[in-house]
Predict the structure.
Amino acid sequence: MRDHGEQNAHRLRKELPDEVPPPPPAEVAPAGDASDGTPGEGRRAPGTGLTGRQRLVKGLWPPRLTRAQLIVALLLFGLGFGLAVQVASNSEGDSALRGARQEDLVRILDELDDRTQRLEDEKQVLEKQRDELENSSDQAEEARRQTLEKERQLGVLAGTVAAQGPGITVTIEDTKETVEADMLLDAIQELRAAGAEAIQVNGVRVVAGTYLTDADKSVNVDGNKINAPYRFQVIGKPQDLEPALNIPGGVVQTLEKEQATVTVERSSKIVVDALRAAKQPDYARSSSQ
């Protein structure tokens, strides 16, 4: 019986396949290594010895700019700087008006209305001259009359003839010797913008080509040295000229900040008798010749 059992066991061992040896232990993959082959943070590229993060940093820094990219960057910087300056200047102008008093704003608005009215009057005068030329029976005589009138007006502007009429006298006392040429030039430009037709300063006629420069404790007007007090004689509409000097942040306030004293007097008759010699242009000639 025992021998029969041993024979059966021996037969069963022959029928069963040999035992499969267990696989060798798998190597532990580095952290971040995925089974799908995607490199993780700690996986190194073959032949480089660098991780993915190190290769990314190396590709981004230092930056490699082309010449075209550099030019575009400079253009964008210049455009941004210009816009910033423009916005700042506009903000300063708006803040000055926001801080002005109501009566100052009304005065500024009146001055703008006056300038608009002067331009409209000039337009009407020109249209009237045109109509007179078109409707006159003797157009040659009418043209001659208008030419003489225009010559007189241009003589006043050029300073070759004397002029008189209503206007103002502006006196600037400069005891601290702080008034400079650019401040007087601002006064001249403000008066011209307000409709001044003839100006002289301390006996020097002011014309379109007048220039002012600083001298030793004084000012030169077209090369003529003048000293304080500076006296402006201006022909024009007094109701327009005086407010133009007194606007907020204008000529009078600027000079007073420099400890100068400004006096403005209206008059029904201002005489501007300083003359300038007519200068013959070197190259320009009338196109009608």
About this structure: The longest strand covers residues 261-272. The chain has a mean pLDDT of 78. The radius of gyration is 46 Å. Helices lie at 2-15, 52-60, 67-98, 102-135, 139-158, 181-193, 238-245, 251-257.
